[in-house]
Every structure is written in structure tokens, then in C-alpha cells.
Amino acid sequence: MEYTYYLFYNSGSGGNRGQQFLELDQKELSFNIKESICRVKFYNICNSTSREAGLQQIMKQQVDDIYVVMAGGDGSIMWIVELLLMHEVNIHKCILIPFPFGTGNDFANTLGWGTSVPHDVIGIDNQVLKGYVEQWNSGVESYFDVWDVEIKLQDIGFISEIKRNENGVGEVKLQLQDQRYYKQMINYFSIGVDARIGFGFDKNRTPYQCCNKFVYCWEGFKKMFLKTPKVNQSIENIHHINDDDNLENGLIQKFKDQIVVPGNPVNLLCLNINSYAGGLKNIWINASQSQVKVYSNIPSFSDGLLEILSFNSILGLGSERLIPGQATRLSQSGGPLKLNFKQNEHLRTYFQIDGQYYSITNPSSVLIRSCQSLPQGKIRVLINKQGLLK
């Protein structure tokens, strides 16, 4: 039996640790594992020549299952999916395996592959890498939900993100068409103070993964003393949209002729997975119930549902890791889910998609629905059952 693993690595992820694969670029290693020959082929997703060489090899594959390993962070996962779709590869023939080289790695953590890898993956006789190949060889396949997030801005609105170049670090406005921003989501979407903390973190992150955790904590401490619009100061209402474009019961609540999110939360969080902010787990399971309706206690990344929660304070958000149960359950939704913003003269808030942070000025609405460019809105992934979150 022979297996081929196409390993694409993001040389800039997780403090540039992916650069250790450069010496193996467009080369192949073979391992004998349980009477099987396992080949690993290496391609730099950041280099167009190397990337294209790997994609061309995948396009020639005639087997039913094509194993694609993505060594990078959470953002790299949809990068390789988009490239496969662009090259008209049958996406449901591809089984994606995350190799956690990023900063948070919540996607990999959810599938049982952990939040980090050893620094010497390419070490003596490649024994560390061989250990991972053995795990890949015994992994279990599953489907995984993917969501579309479309953000619409007012005419005077804009979105900024943090960019790094040879001149330093700074905010850069995104170039938009028709005042709309579109991105796919696999992990989570949020609006509010947690995204503002992440935005500040992006400004000050270091090349070192361990140091970045301290930077993130420092940013969270600073934001306790700055005013960030709370959910009910920025969002007018939230709609579960059905086929008749009516509102469903559940998340939204009418009070004094206004539709508001219950309480006065500092953020709104839509979870597709059971891991958040670099390994914070079981938020939904531990959260308190805000409605009479009883929701599922066992969220799944393949059930076609998002878990929607909120935190009432930065302190509660920061202490969730040590004292679980700080969040409030709001709803579960299969989408489409629409958030309409207050049409203030000047509203600036923050949002994140899968750990990428943005500042948004004068938003109009956010629409979240099952990914339209994927069959059934899903991808195939490989699970490490021994490492699954409990």
C-alpha cells in the first residue's frame, strides 16, 4: 500500500518556523510505516513556482483520496482550499490535514492535531516528521463546515487591517468593490472587544511564538481602559433569515420596541468549532443559558450549525480559561444569519474572522451563510482521534 502526502508549508507562519522546510522544497521523503510506503512531497505555498508545481502534481492524481497537508496557521487552510478550487480540483477528493505551525491553530486543535509542533520537525533522520506521518496514516476522515462571511459597508465606510512591510507596521485600508468584503470562515467570527485586542496584537506581534502570548495578554489588559462599542451600541438587530425572509425566534429579543441582543455584552461570537483563541475549549458547553429554549450541549464542526455566544465583560472573556462558564448562550443557527448595524454618523468597531483582525468604520451589515462555492458547504478533513478535545 502506498500513500502520498502533499505538504504545503507557509514559510511565514508561527514566527517563520515553516522555513525549516525550505531545504526540502519540491523534494520527497519516504517512510515505511506498517507495511505501507508513505511519501511526503514538500511545496512552499508562498512561492508561486513551488506552489504551482505541487498543484500540478495533485491535478494529475487519479486516486479517490488525495491527502493535502497544510503546515501553517488557520488562515493557510482556506488559502490551499481556494487554490485547489481555482485549479478545478475536485475538492471532495482532497482530505485536508492541518500541521499546526501558526500562532493559534484552533482548526488543528479541534481535529486533534494540537496547537503546536516541535521546533525540530526536520531533525535527525526526520524521526519527528515520521511520527506525524504515522498519525496521518491512522487518521479518520470527516466532513467540516465552511461558512461565507459578507460584510457590507455604508458609502462612507471602510475596513482596515495591519500590514507589515520594509517600512514598518501600520493600518492599511482594504480595496473593496461595491463597498463589500467577502471571506470564508472555518473557525469563528466575532465583533467587539476581543477583535480589538487582536487588532492591537497584530500591531505588536513578534517573530517568536512564545513571546506573542505575552503580547496578547498585554493588549487585553490595555483594552480594559479603552472604550470599545458594546454589541448593543453597534448592532441594531440580528436576523435568522429563512426562505420567506422572516425572522425566527431564538437569538433576537424584542424590548421596548427595539430588537437587541440580551444583556449588554462586549462582544458577539459565532463559533464553528470547539476551540477559540489558541486552545480555549468548551465555551459553548460551559456557557450559561439566556433563553427558555434548550440548545444542543454537544456542538459539532459538521452539523451545519453555528453556536452564537456573548461575553459581558473583558474580565469574563479573559478569565474563561481559568474559570469556565463566563459566556452566555444566545442561539444556534444554520444561517443565513444577518447582523444589521446602527447607522450612526461615525461608528468604528472591530471584527475578526479565524484569527485575522480588522477595524471597520461605518458598517452596514454582516451576512453569514453556508459556503456557496463548496459542495454542501463542506470540506473533507482528517481527524486524530487520540488528540481530540475532551
Structural summary, described in words:
- With 390 residues, this protein is of the alpha+beta class.
- It folds into 2 domains: 2-138, Rossmann fold, CATH 3.40.50; 147-370, Tumour Suppressor Smad4 (Sandwich), CATH 2.60.200.
- It has helices spanning 13-16, 48-60, 74-86, 106-110, 127-137, 193-204, 209-223, 231-234, 283-286, 314-319, and strands spanning 2-9, 28-33, 36-44, 66-72, 94-100, 140-145, 147-165, 168-173, 180-185, 188-192, 235-240, 253-255, 258-260, 267-271, 275-276, 280-281, 288-289, 306-311, 327-333, 337-341, 348-353, 356-370, 378-383.
- Strands 7, 8, 9, 10, 11, 14, 17, 18, 19, 20, 21 and 22 form a 12-stranded mixed beta sheet that branches. Strands 2-3-1-4-5-23-6 form a 7-stranded mixed beta sheet.
- Helix 6 (193-204) packs across helix 7.
- The radius of gyration is 21 Å and the shape is globular.
- The two termini are 33 Å apart.
- Residues 243-260 have low confidence and may be disordered.
Topology:
Layout: E1 2-9, H1 13-16, E2 28-33, E3 36-44, H2 48-60, E4 66-72, H3 74-86, E5 94-100, H4 106-110, H5 127-137, E6 140-145, E7 147-165, E8 168-173, E9 180-185, E10 188-192, H6 193-204, H7 209-223, H8 231-234, E11 235-240, E12 253-255, E13 258-260, E14 267-271, E15 275-276, E16 280-281, H9 283-286, E17 288-289, E18 306-311, H10 314-319, E19 327-333, E20 337-341, E21 348-353, E22 356-370, E23 378-383
Parallel strand pairs: 1-3, 1-4, 4-5, 5-23, 17-19
Antiparallel strand pairs: 2-3, 6-23, 7-8, 7-9, 7-22, 10-14, 10-21, 11-20, 12-13, 14-18, 15-16, 18-19, 20-22, 21-22
Keywords: ATP-binding, Kinase, Nucleotide-binding, Transferase
Organism: Paramecium sonneborni
GO cellular component, one term: membrane
